[in-house]
Amino acid sequence: MQRAKGQRGRWAFLSLAALGVVYGDIGTSPLYAVRECFYGHYGVEPVEANVLGVLSLVTWSLLFVISLKYLVFVLRADYDGEGGILALMELVLRRSEGRGRSWILMLGIFGASLLYGDGIITPAISVLSAVEGLEVVTPGLGVWVVPITVGILVALFAVQRTGTAGVGRWFGPIMLVWFATLAALGVASVLDEPGVLRGLDPRHGVQFLVANGMTGLTILGIVFLVVTGGEALYADLGHFGTFPIRLSWHLVVLPSLLLNYFGQGALILGGGAEIHHPFYQLVPAWGMGPMVVLATAATVIASQAIISGAFSLSYQAMQLGYLPRLAVRHTSATERGQIYVPSVNWMLLVATVALVLGFRTSGALASAYGVAIATTMVITTLVLYAALRGVFGWRRSAALALCGFFVVFDLAYFAANMLKFADGGWVPLLVAGGVMLLMTTWRRGRAIERRRIRDLAVDPVQHLADIGGGGTYRRVPGTAVYLSHTATGTPRTLVDNLEHNHALHRRVVLFTVRTVRRPWTADDDRLRVERLRDDLHRLVAHVGFLERIDVPALLAQADREFDLDLDLDGLTYFVGDEFHVPTPELGMDQLRSHLYAWLARNQHRVTRFYHLPADQVIELGRRVSV
């Protein structure tokens, strides 16, 4: 009984926390989604048939996309408890071969790249739409909307380096107040106009699309804004687990969203031409100031979740070999997912502020929003089909039926969003294209380097015997650790050291870190030690793609487990300081060869990335053609 009570308490805590992380994006959509359907650039006339049609599309989009597709099926496709498009891709790649593998790889990389496009638009549109409430409070404050928005965004990105562990505990309670407020405002308005509940009937949505033709399809692309948090929901699976995410959705988020959307619809039906910002006009005059503050807090929390997601995605991509080494700071001693990636942070800030200054209103930004997520949702469905077939063993007919059903909706939303391409929809696709170029170039360049290293590899024991027979090197006291990209052959740093210094330490460890295609590794599977001769050992450490790489800590673990008798404070680490020279003839075109060389030269230093003690490191430089 006590155990069951404790489990319920844990689920309640995780469900509350999920409100602040998982549902921030989707929870702030009421600020702009309905308004753009009627009062935005593409808005339709706010008559009864259109209001009921839009509300029907909103309702069934939430039910089909979030409640059914993501919460029932996509969340089942976890990789050791982790979610997100990269985790799903790696789950499938583990079981796939041949050309199918290449397609899955490209889809996964492009899907991950698209999330960076979402990462710059979500903070911009969310904070901008909240601050626009000032215009409703006092129209004269409209000129301050953009400056205040920029100030909030700069502050938000500036505090990322300190971590969110301290304030993060307040995210869930604040979002709970936010959702309760959404529901309360909606209920009051629906009670004044109960006929609006007819919008629950899916036939109104179908009739709206048929009656409005291309205009109706365009509005569907705006309605899609209510489900843009679906991919973020899946990506945060590893932090909370499936049950708390589902529980908070069904008990809090879905009812609150629907009540508020229908409340806005009721207000439009009753107010007609007098309505221009339905969300804020639901709020009584005495509550406008507090509501602007609460809405701003909710959008900052939603933006924080997206920014943290971009950090996690970058770390995964880096560990899996799709991005070069980036500086990463772990901002919490207890939460392993709390990280800060400075380069990603500042690039997101510059891009987000540029969007605010360029588009200036949330209505204009709505045209750019949705394209990236709609495309990612199509990709998720395609990769989910491969997972159902290759990982879960579904029959082809069953997998096709389910994913075919989902892809009909996905393609409809995709087509609807692509109608906004010229008005800003190109922005996230341009960002995604740039990120994908970086990822594929880095992956290709690393593959070329690894192949050349393998081709030139020589056995270390034989190499030492060959050059030592004539007394060409002397032995010096201590233990040397040579870091190597591969777990075969002789590290280039060892060859260079012998060639230039003609010395070899009394004990030598050849150390290689391998990132496995799993989020985490168990301690029992982490280390492998091979004794090559009495004074020479090869140590291979296996780490998951979400794990922090601390070479001294791994060596200490190996020393304990394998009795290597290492003087950990007296080790000398040899690392290569490589200067990459573009050489297109080796396998990449000229542009990508130069891009790869630039990425390699500007990646984070090995010593910091692997947490090596600076006073125990010797760097050996050399030129590398790529």
Please supply descriptive tags for the structure shown above.
626 residues, alpha/beta, Amino acid/polyamine transporter I, Rossmann fold, six-stranded mixed β-sheet, two-stranded antiparallel sheet, 27 helices, 8 strands, 62% helix
Describe the 3D structure.
With 626 residues, the protein is of the alpha/beta class. The protein has two domains: 2-444, Amino acid/polyamine transporter I, CATH 1.20.1740.10; 458-625, Rossmann fold. It has 27 helices and eight strands. The chain has helices at 2-21, 24-27, 33-39, 48-73, 85-93, 98-131, 133-137, 145-158, 165-168, 171-192, 202-223, 230-235, 237-240, 242-271, 278-281, 288-319, 342-359, 362-365, 371-390, 396-418, 426-456, 460-468, 492-501, 523-526, 551-562, 590-602, 606-609; strands spanning 329-330, 339-340, 474-484, 503-515, 527-533, 536-543, 572-581, 617-625. The strands form two sheets. It has a six-stranded mixed sheet, with helices on both faces. Strands 1-2 form a two-stranded antiparallel ribbon. Strand 1 (329-330) and strand 2 (339-340) form a beta hairpin. Helix 1 (2-21) crosses helix 14 (242-271) and helix 11 crosses helix 20 (396-418). It is elongated and about 95 Å long. The model has no long low-confidence stretch (mean pLDDT 84).
In short:
This protein is α/β, with parallel strands linked by helices. The chain has helices spanning 2-21, 24-27, 33-39, 48-73, 85-93, 98-131, 133-137, 145-158, 165-168, 171-192, 202-223, 230-235, 237-240, 242-271, 278-281, 288-319, 342-359, 362-365, 371-390, 396-418, 426-456, 460-468, 492-501, 523-526, 551-562, 590-602, 606-609; strands at 329-330, 339-340, 474-484, 503-515, 527-533, 536-543, 572-581, 617-625.
